[in-house]
Write a structure and sequence with these properties.
Phosphorylase Kinase, domain 1; Transferase(Phosphotransferase), domain 1; eight-stranded parallel β-sheet; 6 helices; about 20% strand; Volume-regulated anion channel subunit LRRC8A; repeat; leucine-rich repeat; Protein_kinase_ATP_BS
Length: about 450
Amino acid sequence: MSNPQTLEDLRSGSYKGVKRLKLSANLSSFPTEIFSLFDTLEILDLSGNPLSVLPNDFSRLHKLKTLFLSDCKFATFPAQLVKCRSLEMIAFKNNHMITIPEGSFPRKLRWLILTNNEIESLPASIGHCHRLQKCMMAGNRLTRLPDEMAHCRKLGLLRLSSNNLATLPDWLFQLPELSFLSFAGNPCAPAFSDNPILSEIIWSELSTQHLLGEGASGIISKGTWKASDGDREVAIKVFKGEVTSDGSPMDEMNACIAAGQHPNLIDPIGKIHGHPEKKGLVLQLIPPHYTNLGLPPDFSTCTRDRFARDLAFSAEKCRSVLYGVADASKHIHERGIAHGDLYAHNTLIDNSGHALLGDFGAATIYGDHEKREAIERMEILAFGHLIEDLVNLVEHRLDGDEVLGEKDGYVIEGLNALHYKCTNPIVMERPNFEEAVEVLGGL
């Protein structure tokens, strides 16, 4: 993405013909110089500027597909965007936005990010967004979803955490492609008190070493715990405390604790006590030979993971990974927890095919929710996508006219049959995770 530092840079003409433009220069009004890129610009990022309105002729950028206006000052969603005929992705995160006028969403909208605003209702016209696949509304003030949203039949990911929803509508559990749902931190999700079994670990007993990773909700470091029985290497996750695109880090911590221990989960060891500013968890340290199974979705794949081009699996390794993920999912659903982000990029694997399901950032503790069976069968659609992805990796091993042996062919045939059941467009006709584990164990 081209990044001019000032308006003078943009006016110089050296950016003419670019497809991507990012500009953060304390702009209080939209720089009309951008219109000179009307025939090429596809991605525009003006995040971090004190902008509050867009010009009426904004649709002159007729090739624009992606618009980022996060951390700005838009109290009202700009109705001008409905005229942007190519616009597919819109982000207004952290704007203190209150209002979305009827008829503001462009018809080609696929990906909508309105995280951490003050929105109380969505317009009924969202039902016209028949291509909508990803809708991120965590950290708002929604009290209900418009019934017209039932027409968004392509919706695959919906983030509703940290709102004011007293109920979830029945039609939500009939959407044929919805597989990634989070609704923690709403009145419709049961209240949760921390698991008293998990030990508290004093911050002064911990020492951090190098960074292992950083996600939306927190920072994970390798560390040492000076336990009573000797020093122990651990992973230390310190939460940032802000509402992320998935939800509240505190809901993530509660779900991680409630999930408990399982051979295919990253085990929580204790809650951090006495940190000067933040909350955190001490977790099992994963050996370095474990690697991420997949890569997160990008603009084009939207709700589906990506994989390294040279990644290939044997049929047995494919079955082993899927068995581990399914067994972990069975375990958490038995405890009334939906993962909410059941993806390959949230799964670690080793060479033997042992899988560890991680990242509870979008998890919801649903307990005895009246829709608990539907919630589990909604999530198994995400598992069905994972089956499809991994079976494709087995096929990448084949060279030319090479075919699978009889045993491997039997495994793949069984996986394809399970994929078919898990992706049934009728939610309640899908299997649950207990049934999936039984099938995978039999292969």
